[in-house]
Write a structure and sequence with these properties.
The chain has 136 residues and is α/β, with parallel strands linked by helices. It has 5 helices and 5 strands; from the N terminus they run E-H-E-H-E-H-E-H-E-H. The longest helix has 19 residues.
């Protein structure tokens, strides 16, 4: 008799509709429910209103206004680092990339173009983190 596994929920922030659709498809294939927004401001508002719903956040680094690095700082601080943040980039200002890598760590950086294997790795990492958090 196995334990039923909780469906993971992801908050996704990406302003490119084609990239967003691809992310959603990858996550759906892996059994992850995703809620998506096209701006960091919208995503942060959603996170603030419903933070307990989300197991992890994926955000694009380069956005006008609030950046993905800003999202990472806010989510990590507000969730007391319980909710991992993954940052997508297709190239950006090297200083911003460096700052973002210092915030989330090298292994939570997603280079565009990405593939399904990368999202499998992310989902597996989140599952492991959730299991460690519930182990006494």
């Amino acid at each position: 008799m196995g334990l039923e596994q909780k469906v993971l929920n992801a908050l996704v922030i990406e302003d490119d509709k084609d990239v967003l659709r691809l992310i959603q498809e990858h996550l759906k294939t892996l059994g992850v429910k995703s809620t998506s927004f096209s701006t960091c401001e919208q995503g942060l508002n959603e996170f603030l209103a419903h933070q307990t719903l989300y197991d992890f956040v994926i955000t694009d680094l380069n956005q006008s206004g609030t950046s993905g690095a800003d999202v990472a700082v806010y989510v990590k601080s507000y969730s007391q680092e319980r909710i991992p943040v993954y940052i997508l980039t297709g190239g950006a200002d090297q200083d911003l990339i460096g700052a973002a890598k210092r915030i989330v760590g090298e292994k939570r950086f997603i280079d565009k173009p990405f593939n399904a294997k990368r999202f499998y790795q992310i989902v597996e990492e989140v599952k492991q983190l959730k299991a460690q958090a519930t182990t006494p």
